[in-house]
Amino acid sequence: MEVLFKVIRQTENSSPVVQTYRLEAEPGNTILDCLNQIKWEQDGTLAYRKNCRNTICGSCAMRINGRSALACKENLRSEIARLENIPASGSKASSIPEMTIAPLGNMPVIKDLVVDMSSFWDNLEAVAPYVSTAGRQVPEKEFLQTPQERSLLDQTGNCIMCGACYSECNAREVNSDFVGPHALAKAYRMVADSRDDDTENRLENYNEDTKGVWGCTRCFYCNSVCPMDVEPLEQITKIKQEILQHKQVADSRSIRHRKVLVDLVKEGGWIDERKFGLHVVGNYFKDLTGLLSIVPLGMRMIAKGKFPLSFESSEGTQQVRSLIEAVQQEEGSRE
Ligand code: SF4
Ligand code: SF4
Ligand code: FES
């Protein structure tokens, strides 16, 4: 079959340009196979990362037809089928299928599809991604774990550090302090590890302002693009639960975060994002320093078109409210 590859090309000092390549390929060819074909047969100057060709090393993440994914995992057949399900993609009307390939987001481009991942690695380092046994008697042989203890590490242990989640993270786009979904998924792996003896310090660290778990806007993108089903958002939620259970590190803002979330959903059926930060960080307009601290973030969100200017209650508000009230009543009767 014939296919068109529209590759967004760029160097550090130039504006992006779209370069189109036409090639003959099989439907089962991966996007990486096609890029290799372009590089080896048509244009040796095209730059991209690759290594294992088998969804192991995480090198070949890039934006494929609008979302971050591994080039060695996705193939032409699956991409064409995906595009056909997107009404505005126009791929049905076109006689030759088109693949649009762009570099990962939230990181500066070095050349073509190669991005500078320094911030990605620095943010991983910021969560201390190593099992700490400093304050513990180290056994002579090995640390034993039960199968149950080990199974808690399976999902997060699957992360191949590809950067797809980081590329799509809405919080990262507006808040350069936020460490990102990959780092927090790794952070939960440390919290869950029975060999680690630094949980209290970790939870304090991950609880910090909008740098840690509270910086996540729960947009779900990291879960939807992760090629290894690590589900970073689920891991972030588990860290929040741990923080809230450890009363000594659960400052009032963390507790307010959960309370405001429930109150707003009860009020409008879903979250009124305009009020969320004002109530959580600004403590219902009582904390002037907190309010001032989120002004720059608010301005960046408005500039990026990520701040909703109006709010409409959900049609199911009454139903949602009844459900929350029923749960609250049940909880109250148990206390
Ligand atoms: S859910 Fe949170 S961590 Fe995941 S992409 Fe959205 S903002 Fe980022
Ligand atoms: S969590 Fe998933 S998307 Fe994010 S770096 Fe790890 S494997 Fe990639
Ligand atoms: S080349 Fe290793 S994950 Fe794609």
Determine the CATH topology of the largest domain.
Fumarate Reductase Iron-sulfur Protein, Chain B, domain 2
Mind telling me the CATH superfamily name of the largest domain?
A: Alpha-helical ferredoxin
Distance between the termini: 66 Å
The CATH class of the largest domain is identified as Mainly Alpha
Number of helices, where a helix is a run of at least 4 consecutive DSSP H or I residues: 16
Low-confidence stretches: none
Shape: globular
Number of domains: 3
The helical percent reads 40-55%
Q: Which value, in Å, is the CA radius of gyration? A: 23 Å
Cofactor: [4Fe-4S] cluster; [2Fe-2S] cluster; [3Fe-4S] cluster
Keywords: 2Fe-2S, 3Fe-4S, 4Fe-4S, Iron, Iron-sulfur, Metal-binding, Oxidoreductase, Tricarboxylic acid cycle
GO biological process, one term: respiratory electron transport chain
Family: Belongs to the succinate dehydrogenase/fumarate reductase iron-sulfur protein family.
Structure characteristics:
335 residues; alpha+beta; Ubiquitin-like (UB roll); Fumarate Reductase Iron-sulfur Protein, Chain B, domain 2; 3 domains; five-stranded mixed sheet; two-stranded antiparallel ribbon; 7 strands; globular; binds iron/sulfur cluster; binds FE2/S2 (inorganic) cluster; SDH/FRD_Iron-Sulfur; Succ_DH/fum_Rdtase_N; succinate dehydrogenase (quinone) activity; Succ_DH/fum_Rdtase_Fe-S; metal-binding
Helix-strand blueprint:
Elements: E1 2-9, E2 17-24, H1 31-42, E3 61-64, E4 67-70, H2 76-84, E5 98-102, E6 109-111, E7 114-115, H3 118-126, H4 147-151, H5 154-157, H6 164-168, H7 170-174, H8 181-192, H9 199-206, H10 221-225, H11 232-245, H12 252-268, H13 273-280, H14 288-293, H15 295-303, H16 317-334
Parallel strand pairs: 1-5
Antiparallel strand pairs: 1-2, 3-4, 3-5, 6-7
Helix pairs in contact: 3-8, 8-9, 8-11, 12-13, 12-16
The structure holds iron/sulfur cluster (2 copies) and FE2/S2 (inorganic) cluster.
FE2/S2 (inorganic) cluster binds at residues 50-53, 55-60, 70, 72.
